[in-house]
Amino acid sequence: MADCIFCEIIQGTAPASVVYEDAACKAFMDVHPIHQGHLLIVPRIHYDELSKCPVSMAGRLFEVAARLGPVVTDVVGGTGFNIWTANGKDAGQEVFHLHLHVLPRFADDSFGLRFPQDYPQEASREELEKVAGWIKTLLWDQKRSRPSSPS
Question: 128, exposed or middle or buried, with CB in 10 Å at 0-12, 13-18, 19+?
């Protein structure tokens, strides 16, 4: 895709410090790391975000992340790691090519999710069941309108 830095990295026309690649994906160091060892995993095929990616590809990306997370954590002396993706501008996505972040973590590091001030507030069972019903209905509708195997 034109003007996509990750597509350029995949094609070899932009520099990257690659740590892993296979037929489906490529993993490389983030040029704006939150911590030393922060890396990104991208599919070779351009998908804007996770919701537009076949389930089989999403599974492959997470499989690679599960293998790389402990390795990079050991290399940089971390005590844990996060794997995440942002889907859409309002979720914080800045590069619109699906990518997983693998971020080694350290005791007392300053990075983390920030919960609202009024968190936690337990939801009522009625509210939980209502939203669960909406989700199940939409999943059922999508299942009937989609092909059985992702491509």
Answer: exposed
How would you list the strands of the sheet with 39-43, edge to edge?
A: 18-21, 25-29, 39-43, 100-105, 80-84
35 catalytically annotated: no
Q: Select from 28, 25, 24, 2 the least CA-distant residue to 15.
A: 28
The per-residue pLDDT for 144 is 56
- Which DSSP letter does residue 52 get? G
Domains parsed from the chain with CATH numbers: 5-107 (3.30.428.10)
Name which of 36, 43, 37, 16 is nearest 28 in CA terms: 16
Positions in the chain whose pLDDT score sits under 70 = 1, 142-151
Element (H, E) at 25: strand 25-29
* 3-state SS track over 102-125: EEEECCCCCCCCCCCCCCCCCCCH
Residue with tokens 């402990």: 70
Which of the residues 38, 97, 99, 101 is marked catalytic? 99
Query: pLDDT value at position 91?
Result: 87
pTM across the whole model: 0.82
